[in-house]
Amino acid sequence: MTERTRRIQEAITEASVEVTSDDHAVTVVVGPGGAVRDLHLSTRAFHHGGAELGQVVVATIRAANTRMAEELSAIMADILGAGTRPPFAPLPTPAQLRTQLDDGDGGAR
């Protein structure tokens, strides 16, 4: 196994990101691939209704996954070289795709 491959495997195995919602009601820890490793609801979470709390949880997980993708991309660029296309770039949301189509660029970037 090459040193580069070992470093990539180590980075992916150890990668972890913790994000807390703006209102401090929800904290999530995610790993690569969107794996939720931990979910903590503070007492502030109980000020939300069920549907609203669900939205906060999902938004916090999405934010953590975005940050995870950014961090892994930076690590990969460091290991493979700055000109390498990041393999962990987050996919655009349906709303972002609609905006790109509405702007007339057909989603090309």
Automatic annotation (TrEMBL):
Upper taxonomic lineage: Bacteria, Bacillati, Actinomycetota, Actinomycetes, Micromonosporales
Organism from which the protein derives: Micromonospora luteifusca
Keyword Cytoplasm listed: no
InterPro entries assigned to the protein according to its UniProt record, in alphabetical order: YbaB-like_sf (IPR036894), YbaB/EbfC (IPR004401)
Highest taxon of the lineage: Bacteria
Protein name: DNA-binding protein YbaB
Gene3D superfamilies in UniProt: Nucleoid-associated protein YbaB-like domain
Molecular function as annotated in GO: DNA binding
Keywords from the UniProt entry: DNA-binding
SUPFAM superfamilies named in the record: YbaB-like
Record carries keyword Plastid: no
Pfam families per record: YbaB_DNA_bd
Region of interest called Disordered, as start-end residue ranges on this chain: 86-109
